[in-house]
Amino acid sequence: MVKNRVIKTCLVCKSEFSVRYCRRDTTKYCSKKCMYIGIRSPVRKCPTCGKNFWAKGNPLKRNFYCSKKCSGAARKSGEIVTCMYCGKKVYKEKCRIDKAANLFCTLLCANKYQGRNKVKFNCKTCGKSFRLSLSVVEQRTPLYCSILCRNNDEEWIKKASLNSNIAQYKKKGLNKLEKTGNDILKELNIEFYNQFSIEDKFLVDVFIPKKNIVIQWDGDYWHGHKSKLRCGKPDYRQKKRMDLDKSQDAYMKKCGYLVLRFWEYEVYNNKEKVKESIKENFSRRPV
Question: Quick one: average pLDDT of 77-91?
Fold first, then answer.
């Protein structure tokens, strides 16, 4: 033994070499060439494709694969299934096979399979042809190809407005003005209906069936009384409501109804005048 040095045997080439005494436990190779050969992992065989490759690590703790592709293939737990629509063979994971009743290769095939029983229809507004399932047709009458076409149909707008008013009435009931007007009619012992539908187009506040009379209790602001106008002109909402009132009155007169309108301030502040007007029109109106 040389002073302060130790003779060791290389683990790779088996030749003897000397190292310092302080490195007797850490040095295992005689040269860098032998070290690179020694630290290299042994040749392993990929369990998926059978290819030989180098890999580090303990083979007792985990499996070694030559690539991510082979590693992913080894983890697959699904099966090759047949697409229900086009018949193409495709791999599906086990979780999808367990949950799905029908399996498809793509979303396009799934949509085509789902729409196989759809029936062809024409849009009421634009005439464009489109397909719908029968279950949807039962809920949509008339039929439109898009929401834009539906919103451009005047008949749908009127019906939607009528349904909205009915729903609001059922939810909130009569307001203070309508209740006050009803008290006047009760004092006259006149039979009437509240929130009556005229020809399935719109609701009126009061309908008297015996004389075919319609009574509307108009709020001062919403229906555009001159005391509620800014600079003598109605705003956008007032103008829209006023135009709607005129069109509704014209339609009801053509249908043979007598339309009476009373302002909010009249109902609250001049009940006798309102009562006399209703009584007079009721007596003059033929049965």
Answer: 90
Is 14 inside any structural domain?
yes
Residue 111 DSSP one-character state:
H
Assess contact for 125 and 166: CB atoms under 8 A: no
Whether residues 167 and 279 fall in one domain: yes
Residue with tokens 């096979």: 97
User: Rounded to whole angstroms, how far apart are CA atoms 238 and 229?
Assistant: 9
The distance from CA 83 to its chain's CA centroid, rounded to whole angstroms, is 29
Q: How many CA atoms lie within 13 A of 148 on its CB side?
A: 2
Distance from C-alpha of 258 to C-alpha of 280, rounded to nearest angstrom:
13
| Among 111, 150, 117, CA closest to 132 | 117
Evaluate whether 210 touches 286 at the Cβ level (below 8 Å): no
Amino acid at 118: K
Give the CA angle between residues 78, 80, 86 to the nearest 5°: 130
User: Looking at the structure, do residues 278 and 178 belong to the same domain, yes or no?
Assistant: yes
Distance CA(262)–CA(241), nearest Å, equals 15
The string of DSSP codes covering 157-193 is HHHHHHHHHHHHHHHH---HHHHHHHHHHHHTT---E
Distance from C-alpha of 206 to C-alpha of 96, rounded to nearest angstrom:
60
Domain of 256?
162-284
Structure-token pair, residue 19: 């190292």
In a 13 Å sphere around the CA of 249, the CA atoms on its Cβ side amount to 12
Q: Cα(228)–Cα(234) distance, rounded to whole angstroms? A: 8
268 φ/ψ angles, rounded to the nearest 5 degrees: -80, -40
Residue 78: CB atoms within 10 A of its CB come to 14
User: What is the arithmetic mean of pLDDT over 122-134?
Assistant: 85
Mean pLDDT on 223-244: 87
Q: Per-residue pLDDT tens for 42-71? A: 777 888 888 877 666 666 666 788 888 898
